[in-house]
Fold:
Amino acid sequence: MPYLLDKFQLKDLTLPNRLVMGPMTRAKATPEGVPTPIMATQYAQRASAGLIISEGTWPERCGQGYCDIPGIATQEQEDAWRTVTDAVHDKGGRIFLQMEHTGRVGHEVNNGGLQMVSSSSQPADFQIYTHEQGMIQMTTDVHALTTDEVHEVIDSYYKAAIRTKAAGFDGIELHGASGYLPHQFLSDVANTRDDEFGGTLYKRTEFLVQVLSKLIEAWGTSHRIGIKISPNIRFNGISEEDPDSTYAILLERLNELDLAYVAFKTPESLRSLSGPGNEDLADGEIWHRYPNEFIRERYQGTVIASGDLNQEYAQKALENDKTDLFVFGRDYMSNPDLVERMRYGWPVTPVDMRRAYGGGGAEVGNNDYPTYPEERAQAKAAEPEHKVS
Ligand SMILES: Cc1cc2nc3c(=O)[nH]c(=O)nc-3n(C[C@H](O)[C@H](O)[C@H](O)COP(=O)(O)O)c2cc1C
Structure:
């Protein structure tokens, strides 16, 4: 019987367990996108995860939709990331960089005033946080990339991949999910092009495949390159009319690339589906409702699930051969020792989402969640002393 906390062979990389710390934007970089020392501490504290995926990181500045998120486009950023990867490796961990070009998702006040780009000129009907004005409508001044410009963007991914390798990462996850630039090419609603990157189902997958091919070329092997997708998700203003046809072709093409993995995010919440009104659904049936069935049937390699998992769901999905690896997002924010908590049956600390983002470089909400033994020691220290008379 496969076990969640047993090791897993991800191509040539041995993972000590099947837990993946999911990519999580925390907005703790400098305004210029340089990683800060507290980020190194945060990732190193979580090094017992089978694999860590970094927060979304931009390959070029106009792909920075949010404030204070890191990039991998300059020497300074590369050097700062090296301190992160060294810290993780010193603790025995493994870390991939998630490459995230936000495309039309964001606002130019967050990226130094650069015009944001997309497959087409339609804006995303969604809100974004800015330091200056709080939550505002995302940019409405979206530039539809010309064919030549698309090739330039693909080249920026290549250059960023060279830096990612030089910075000591173990691999790259292409962010193809959640309404960002690759998703803006995939979507039959967002992409209205009629060149080599749009107009047919197949051509809508072309941007992702060409970016992946460049990442593979930069790395020298496809075995350290993964991708995250989110079929049918409604987030960041993205929608898809016929996701099944799109993702069937995409997965067929991903098979040919022999990647490290395909990760996906569920469009709904497992925990909410298993809640009121669905009490009669067995866990297996709950999983049937999710894209992992669809992906498992079509994709021959390693599959990673994410979205509202807990140890029990993950173990069941593993036993039913639904998925190979399991992302824990919010639980990893609040439990640096999530692997040990699961191994020894220790309680999992709930996350405080009010402390998720930013904070002007503060450690609060980032590095100050204790391990369980630390939690016990703190509780013991707080106990009143009982003097024996
Ligand atoms: C604070 C926060 C930031 C996130 N940032 C990213 C990101 O940068 N890239 C990404 O692919 N997913 C991002 N996600 C989604 C997570 O990787 C994961 O898919 C999601 O949280 C579901 O897992 P969970 O239910 O275990 O939290 C983020 C989630 C949270 C909570």
Residues 19-380 form a domain with the TIM Barrel fold (CATH 3.20.20.70). DSSP finds 14 helices and 14 strands in the chain.
